[in-house]
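Morning F.,

Quick status update on the modeling queue. The single chain you submitted on Monday has been processed. Sequence for confirmation:
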Amino acid sequence: MVGELINPAAPPEFRVRKLDYLRVTSVGLTYGFRNGMRPRGVVLWEGTLTGETLAGKQRWGGVAPPKRPDSRIDPGFSLTRVRK
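Structure tokens below.
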């Protein structure tokens, strides 16, 4: 699978980012990016699908979370399908 995250509010270099990790689960979706530093890890967002809404929170994979979280990373998300 290939995925991109589009965030119009992000700085130009981060507005469109290819996902490094994308997994469809039995209850929703998990996606994320490599952290780009040592120790190597992945910033993940795990979402659960309830009706038409996929919502979840951010977590770290493969490493302990940083002592001072990056304020630019939104710890939660909610996506709702809009039918036209």
